[in-house]
Each structure stands twice: as C-alpha cells, then as structure tokens.
Amino acid sequence: MTRPARCLKGFPPVATPVGAPRPFCASPGNRRHGFTLIELMIVIAVLAIALQGLFAPIPQLLGWLKTDHREYLAQEAVTTGFTVLHQAFRRARQVRWVSTDEVICLGEGETRLRRGPGGKTLELVRPGGRVCLDFLGAAVFGPFQLVDDHTVWGPVFLDGAKIPMFWRCGP
Questions:
Q1: How many CB atoms lie within 10 A of CB 15?
Q2: What average pLDDT does the segment 10-37 reach?
Q3: Predicted confidence band at 29 (pLDDT cuts at 50, 70, 90)?
Q4: What beta strand segments (E) does 60-150 contain?
C-alpha cells in the first residue's frame, strides 16, 4: 500500500510505503506556519528587557519601606508650617514687632506669632484658637527682626543652612 507525498501542484507524487516517513518538499508554497528559533529568542529578549524595566524600581521601593520615616515627617512639618505662616502674613495688613520672640500680624483679626524655646516651635494665636507648629527639628527659627510696618525677617536654619526669610504682609 502506498500513499502520495505532499508536494505542490504540478510536481509528480512520490510513492512511499505505509509507515515510512513522507519526503518533505522544500518549496516556497509548502512553508510551515510557526516560529523559528531565532524569532522565539528575539521575543524572549524583548520581554526580558520590558519586564526588567517594570521590576527595576521594586528593590528601591522595598528599601524605602524599611527606612525611618522621621525625615519625611519633618519635611512635611516644615512644608505645613511655612504654608500656615504664609497664610497668616497674607491675611495681615500690618506687622507690629513686640520682641525677638513675638510679632503681631494686624488685619482682619489679630494673629500673634510666638517663637518657642530655641526656635524649634512657632505658636500662632488667633481670636478663634491657637496653632502650635512643631518642625520636628528640621527647621529652627532665629529671632524676629522688624524691617518696616509690613515686613519681618528672621533667619531659619534648615539642615545646617542659614536662610534669611522675609515675611511681608498682604497678597
């Protein structure tokens, strides 16, 4: 018993015995569908590069989770404190200097600004309440000094750097 081999039209079939492998006709029309080894290697290489880009930040993120969060809390305290101070001076129309540790912002309401011991805290006292700003050691305020009726300045020490800060009333 014989069976015809697979070949293109126009080529004569070759008879092969049953159970014997059929001859493969290497013609352009009889190409197998699938991936070659080089195509598979290229796909794996591209996927490896893409996945490494996705997973590269994970060790850094895990390292951040293990770190002490005091630095982040201190930075947040400084940002919040400076925002509150900015708003207090923005609402004021005039500044009255009481001492190197206290100034009064006059405007819609009177806001007293007191420097805590060592300048590590600031206290804002308003008619409606009191706010104490603790900078968690990230910022230390030096003594307040009056420039004119609308401006106060004082040094602020941030991580060892002395920064002169000018606070001016009004928008």
A1: 10
A2: 62
A3: low
A4: 92-99, 102-107, 111-115, 121-126, 129-134, 139-141, 145-148
d(C-alpha 157, C-alpha 168), whole Å: 19
Burial of 152 (0-12, 13-18, 19+ CB in 10 A): buried
Contact in structure between 14 and 20 (CB atoms under 8 Å): no
- CB contact set of 17 (below 8 Å; sequence gap of 6+): 1, 2
User: Please, what is the end-to-end C-alpha distance for the chain in angstroms?
Assistant: 102
* Cβ neighbours of 61 (radius 10 Å): 8
Question: SS3 for 15?
Answer: strand
3-state secondary structure of 88: helix
Q: For residue 103, what are the β-bridge partners?
A: 97, 113
Dihedral, 51, 53, 56, 58 alpha carbons, nearest 10:
-70
Q: What is the pLDDT of residues 107-118, one digit of tens each?
A: 878 889 898 888
19: left (phi over 0), alpha (psi -120 to 50) or beta: left
Report the C-alpha gap between 137 and 130 in whole angstroms: 21
* Paired tokens of 15: 């008879």
